[in-house]
Design goal:
Layout (H helix, E strand, L loop, with lengths): L1 E5 L2 E3 L21 E3 L1 H14 L5 E8 L4 H10 L3 E6 L5 H13 L5 E5 L10 H9 L3 E11 L2 E8 L2 E8 L2 E5 L11 H7 L4 E5 L27 H10 L5
Parallel strand pairs: 1-4, 1-6, 4-5, 5-11, 6-10, 7-10
Antiparallel strand pairs: 2-3, 7-8, 8-9
């Protein structure tokens, strides 16, 4: 089985997010970047599926050279090889077009992404790649198993879960429950240095959107600590005015 895992290079969740002076660009100075946590889940499941088989895992990232440490970590976790599309990601449409163009020239049985990236939380790439390749795509996947060429998928829906099946190839946006993220061991870290990391040029994609301005969320208000239920009810009635 040939698996393509799409990984995003995102700020660590503990990073302090700031913007440039006119709030039109994200300020990357001093920010630590990591593999998108949902993509780590996808990669871990791919490793499980290929362990002890002749299957392979290719990781793909759309980004400039600064993303290569993140890609090398994915190789250390267990990916076979890697591809970097040499371009700064503009939006989900741009990223999906790059991934779909590369995948269309290969023969992948399974394409995995995270359910969303933790920086923009768009949840669009998996569905866009599926549409561009004209193959099924399923989002917010909580569990899946493959028997021969048939895949059974459990996905999260409003108020419950949905179980469905389809044939490979398919694109899945994976969520918690699919697998536990793996920590690379020393052997993996050493072998990652010699694994193939191919850099390919981006294809032209029409610009459909642009960032006008970033805004930080409003500061949180003060927290009031209460000891009595009656006091809480009174505050909700007189101050918050939600009762």
């Amino acid at each position: 089985m040939r698996i393509l895992v799409c990984i995003s290079h995102v700020p660590d969740t503990t990073s302090k997010i700031t913007f440039n002076s006119d709030h039109t660009e994200f300020n990357q100075s001093g920010v630590q970047f990591i593999i998108n946590p949902y993509d780590e889940i996808a990669l871990a499941r791919a490793v499980e599926l290929t362990e002890g088989t002749d299957g392979s895992i290719t990781v793909i990232n759309v980004g400039d050279a600064s993303t290569e440490p993140t890609i090398r970590k994915a190789l250390a976790v267990g990916a076979t090889d890697a591809v970097r599309i040499d371009a700064a990601p503009r939006d989900a449409w741009f990223v999906a077009k790059q991934i779909a163009h590369y995948a269309s020239e290969q023969s992948f049985d399974l394409i995995l992404t995270g359910r969303e990236s933790i920086d923009y939380n768009g949840s669009q790439v998996a569905a866009l790649v599926g549409e561009l390749l004209n193959i099924p795509s399923v989002s917010i996947v909580k569990k899946f198993d493959i028997q021969d060429r048939e895949i059974t998928i459990e996905r999260e829906i409003e108020g419950g879960k949905e179980v469905l099946s389809t044939q490979l190839p398919v694109v899945l946006g994976t969520a918690e429950g699919v697998a536990e993220p793996k920590i690379p061991n020393m052997r993996g870290i050493m072998s990652a240095r010699t694994k193939s990391l191919q850099v390919v040029p981006a294809v032209d994609v029409p610009v459909l959107s642009s960032i006008s301005k970033y805004e930080s969320p409003a500061p949180r208000g003060q927290v009031a600590m209460v000891d009595e239920v009656e006091q809480l009810v009174n505050l909700l009635h007189t101050k918050a005015k939600v009762l």
